[in-house]
């Protein structure tokens, strides 16, 4: 699902064909705001001109809202990288093979991270770059945003309870919404609660041990290698969990039962990783900016 610009203001969910659902993106953003350093929060609250706890969550779906506008068309390929692999036999993302000429999610994380670090750019450009980075770090953790088969599963019809949906939509939205017992048109509240739960699971719960490694190897000077690692890890789930018997076998299957039971833990850990990594990435960016400038401000607005 995606939010239209107007719908964001009313917090309404509208059906649509694109991108990790709003619930996933907003949860990733709330989660990140629970993990960033205080100085990082201050920096991005100023850049995004929002000093509430919603400063990241409120802009997490902006990139989807402009994607189908005339102005935003150039960003349409920035939300994914189409791995030309062969699930379930072989998975793996290759940057040179898979990133389209006009960009992909990996090159876009690089592009907009670089812009965020460029103090010569006007603050409105860095504001926009922040919104793209927040969104794309979410997208890259959705396995079907790293897969070429049937346009990331958009062309695979499946059953979901009594509905017919495409597989991409099931992974963007349906699985997460079912896990939370439905979100009753209130994605921000549902995401806030989910993020609080995942924050505890990371700090003191089931993800406490492994989350220590989630930010390992992150290199602000090599955003392509860093985000390619995330994409490759995400894409591995296409072979293990998304298409365990291949793209033909899944057509027409009911996915809200046994399949859901196996998919839900993958969605959960991917949202947890995305939020945790987004926080670490924003920390690196804010640290670098502080180290290279005399003030912690964002410059004249
Ligand atoms: C901050 O963002 C939230 C969520 O988008 C919004 O409801 C609120 O009005 C914003 N606050 C300010 C001061 O802009
Ligand atoms: C990508 O994933 C594949 C299998 O899923 C693995 O064999 C390969 O080593 C990984 N490559 C990188 C660069 O992480
Ligand atoms: C980088 O971002 C700018 C500003 O949004 C955009 O015009 C440009 O096409 C992007 N470049 C690539 C390679 O994605
Ligand atoms: C998170 O939610 C799950 C599912 O409702 C629950 O089993 C778990 O105890 C919660 N974790 C925390 C730390 O609250």
UniProtKB/TrEMBL annotation:
The keyword Nucleus does not apply. InterPro entries: PLipase_C/P1_nuclease_dom_sf, S1/P1nuclease. Keywords: Disulfide bond, Endonuclease, Glycoprotein, Hydrolase, Metal-binding, Nuclease, Signal. Gene3D superfamilies: P1 Nuclease. SUPFAM superfamilies: Phospholipase C/P1 nuclease. It holds the Pfam family S1-P1_nuclease. One of its GO terms (biological process) is DNA catabolic process. Residues 1-19 form the signal peptide. One of its GO terms (molecular function) is endonuclease activity. Belongs to the nuclease type I family. PANTHER family: ENDONUCLEASE 4. This is Nuclease S1. The lineage of its organism: Eukaryota, Fungi, Dikarya, Ascomycota, Pezizomycotina.
């Amino acid at each position: 699902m995606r939010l239209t610009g107007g719908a964001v203001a009313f917090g309404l969910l509208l059906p649509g064909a694109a991108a990790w659902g709003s619930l996933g993106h907003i949860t990733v953003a709330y989660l990140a705001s629970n993990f960033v350093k205080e100085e990082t929060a201050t920096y991005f609250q100023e850049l995004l001109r929002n000093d509430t706890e919603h400063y990241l969550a409120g802009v997490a779906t902006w990139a989807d809202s402009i994607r189908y506008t005339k102005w935003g068309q150039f960003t349409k390929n920035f939300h994914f990288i189409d791995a030309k692999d062969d699930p379930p036999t072989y998975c793996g993302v290759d940057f040179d093979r898979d990133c389209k000429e006009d960009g992909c999610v990996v090159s876009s994380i690089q592009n907009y991270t670089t812009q965020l670090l460029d103090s010569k750019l006007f603050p409105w450009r860095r504001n926009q770059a922040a919104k793209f980075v927040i969104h794309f770090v979410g997208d890259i953790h959705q396995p079907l945003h790293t897969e070429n088969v049937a346009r990331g599963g958009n062309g695979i019809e499946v059953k979901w309870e009594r509905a017919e949906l495409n597989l991409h939509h099931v992974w963007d939205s349906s699985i997460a919404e079912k896990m939370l017992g439905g979100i009753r048109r209130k994605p921000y509240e549902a995401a806030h609660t989910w993020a609080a739960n995942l924050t505890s699971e990371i700090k003191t719960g089931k993800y406490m041990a492994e989350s220590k490694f989630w930010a390992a190897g992150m290199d602000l000077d090599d955003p392509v290698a860093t985000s390619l690692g995330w994409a490759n890890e995400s894409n591995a789930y296409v072979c293990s969990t998304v298409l365990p018997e291949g793209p033909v076998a899944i057509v027409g299957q009911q996915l809200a039962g046994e399949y859901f039971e196996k998919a839900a833990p993958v969605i959960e850990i991917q949202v947890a990783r995305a939020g945790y990594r987004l926080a670490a990435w924003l920390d690196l960016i804010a640290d670098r900016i502080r180290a290279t400038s005399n003030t912690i401000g964002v410059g004249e607005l």
